[in-house]
Design a protein that fits this description.
By secondary structure, this protein is of the alpha/beta class. The protein is about 40% helix and about 20% strand. α5 crosses α6 and α10 crosses α13.
């Protein structure tokens, strides 16, 4: 049947991005349109996005206004950007700043609680009252930045039934947890300033270890909770992954589900690359891509060429590399790295490159074209994360036949079929998984990589399986559509 959805988020490709959240928010509207759903995306008008409005004011229509939005005027402008129906919350006193969405030159913005409360408030108002020409059936909030939107619907919505939404006839709400490590915490004295009622400050409400958590607020009030993989949904009910919110999620287990992310298969397509294209049917171009990658990074690698495209943080398991890489290199392997993150980890990888010239090369930073070359030319992609809600890197690896070597956590375990003897016999293996995320298990996985790569027929079969694995949005969009339909029909 379909309907209308307001997506509330702090990032969206191609407008603003700091991580995978933006990719998901940007991809969902087109994916859901094929399922009969119309989605509009509400975003803060950060300084770069305000320039879009200023450069072409005729392309934007004011559809909502409030003169007392946390200290200044807020207005929502509707327009089209790269095929997306976008609603920009233009509130200069909150978002027109030099720096990123969450931080400036001196660190996190001290009023982030209010900045994203404003985004959530406007999202809830639009969901409740609609715009002149458009009223959503459902609000979809993403992460802590939009976590207060379901809470505002529950606490301020006419006809609301308290925790868990708006009751019959009102806009329903969904919150997706992309990464529970970020929870949007605020001091308790801000309860009134955040437009939350006093009765909400309880362990069953927004209170979290004596303060306020906007993510928890969304988790206790939304009609449905989703995460970005079934594995992560299960993990979040365990203390080692739940970051203090495992009890909250377990208490609402009946409304929790995991829906895998997808990737844009038009953008990430080995057959559509300008240089050295190849397909599963004709993978011969991958050898040329590997040679191009080696030339670009100054590498000569006789065995498997692994790539790593990642934020360089402990969460991603990057600290394990210095302990396991020497043995892998001794066995003939090599590594090309593209990423940035903790300075100490950047330094450790640069030191590895200095000690192993021609076998390890590191580029600090991010370059989209170079990332494509890494996935084109690599034999394997390493994703040794300690936790990974879904992960896109392993999906790119599957798409390009760049065999994923992943820790079996979250979405990594959901998307990669380990090359166990049984999977190899069945012809089903798509990669290598290991557990736990420690140096011993990672080293064993790299030994397995070396041995499998040395068997050309087996290796080609794993690559073909990987490239045949569906990584687009079709299945996931259908799951979101079914979830939405179930909510508005009830």
């Amino acid at each position: 049947m379909g309907g209308k959805v307001l997506s509330v988020a702090s990032e969206c490709v191609p407008l603003i991005k700091t991580g995978g959240l933006a990719d998901v928010v940007g991809a969902l509207p087109a994916a859901l349109a094929r399922e009969g759903w119309e989605m509009r995306v509400l975003l803060p008008a950060y300084r770069p996005l305000r320039r879009l409005i200023q450069d072409d004011p005729a392309a934007w229509t004011e559809v909502w206004y409030e003169d007392g939005l946390w200290g200044g005027v807020g207005r929502v402008l509707a327009g089209q950007v790269a095929g997306l129906s976008v609603l920009l919350l233009d509130a200069a006193h909150l978002y027109d700043r030099e720096g990123g969405p969450y931080a400036g030159p001196s660190g996190d913005w001290p009023d982030n609680a209010q900045r994203f409360a404003a985004l959530s408030w406007v999202g809830a108002r639009i969901a409740r009252d609609g715009l002149a020409d458009w009223k959503p059936d459902l609000l979809h909030a993403h992460d802590w930045q939009a976590g207060l939107a379901p809470a505002y619907l529950a606490y301020h919505g006419a006809g609301g039934d308290g925790a868990g939404g708006q009751g019959a006839g009102g806009a329903k709400s969904v919150i997706t947890v992309h990464n529970i490590a970020f929870q949007g915490q605020a001091a308790p004295h801000l309860l009134g300033d955040l437009r939350l009622p006093g009765h909400a400050f309880t362990p069953e409400g927004v209170e979290y270890f004596g303060g306020i958590s906007s993510l928890k607020a969304g988790l206790v009030t939304a009609d449905r909770i989703t995460t970005v993989s079934p594995g992560y949904a299960r993990e979040l009910m365990r203390p080692e992954f739940g970051r203090g919110l495992e009890g909250v999620i377990a208490a609402r287990a009946e409304v929790v589900s995991g829906i895998l992310n997808g990737v844009d298969t038009a953008i990430w397509s080995p057959g559509a690359e300008a240089e050295t294209p190849y397909t599963a049917a004709d993978p011969s171009g991958k050898a040329a891509a590997r040679a191009a990658l080696c030339a670009a990074f100054g590498l000569e690698v006789p065995g498997p060429l692994a790539v790593l495209v990642s934020r360089l943080t402990d969460q991603k398991g990057i600290d394990l590399l210095p302990g396991v890489l020497p043995e892998f290199i001794e066995a003939g392997g090599g590594l090309a790295v593209l990423g940035s993150g903790y300075p100490e980890l950047e330094g450790a990888l640069l030191d590895l490159a200095a000690r192993h010239p021609g076998r390890v090369a590191v580029r600090i930073g991010y370059d989209e074209a170079l990332s494509h070359l890494l996935f084109q030319g690599g034999d394997a992609v390493l994703v040794p994360s300690r936790f990974e809600p879904c992960g896109l890197t392993q999906l790119y690896g599957l798409r390009y036949g760049t065999v994923p070597v992943v820790a079996a956590v979250g979405g990594l375990g959901d998307t990669v079929i380990n090359a166990s003897p049984a999977a190899l016999t069945a012809g089903a293996a798509t990669g290598i998984t290991f557990w736990p995320t420690d140096a011993l298990a990672f080293a064993q996985a790299l030994r397995r990589l070396v041995s499998l790569h040395a068997e050309p027929e087996i290796w080609r079969r794993i690559q073909a399986n990987a490239m045949a694995h569906p990584v687009g949005w079709e299945t996931s969009a259908a799951e979101y559509a079914a979830l939405y339909q179930g909510l508005i029909d009830r």
